[in-house]
Amino acid sequence: MSISGKLTHKPLVYCLNPKTVTDYRKSFVDMNKTDPLDAYIIADFALLFYITFLNP
Question: pLDDT: is 16 or 51 the higher one?
């Protein structure tokens, strides 16, 4: 049984290049490295740059 039958919504999946996100992260020189800040950096990257939608 697939999980898609159990979901009430269809999540969108985006492909981000880890090297590109890491390089973007380095532009924030005064920020500490924490999980919440990393999530902020990834969200900011996704808003500012072209991201590719994957159709599973």
Answer: 16
